[in-house]
Amino acid sequence: MAQDAITIFLNFFNVFTIINTNRYHLYLIWVVFMVIVGTLLLWFSCYFSYLSSNKQQLISHSISKTFAWSGFVIAVVLATSLFTSQYGFIVAMLITMLLVMAMWLTLVVISAYANYRSVLVFSLGVSVFSGIFLLGVN
Q: In 3-state terms, what secondary structure has residue 83?
């Protein structure tokens, strides 16, 4: 009788451990999703701000500067707030600044060799910068 009670007690905690493990995995997926969405927001904002330049050669006519730069500011604020779900506020701001500098540098270097191939440059940036954060996932 005592053995059955101990077995039931241990099975209860085993189920509880499985539930907590699943919650941890859901939390990890949620955090990765937030970081990836923040990175993609930054890539969109950097890409469109680059396309607003008169000297860009990815599309034939540049897009509106007011549209691109207002979208850039909104996307940077949203991405920083999404990064704060995983990191502290100061670290999230530093990551945002680092990513923006790296994305603009990547855009300038790649677009020098990919004239009028805007889809290629866009998809390359999405895959590279999303992959960078996926490498750091536990």
A: helix
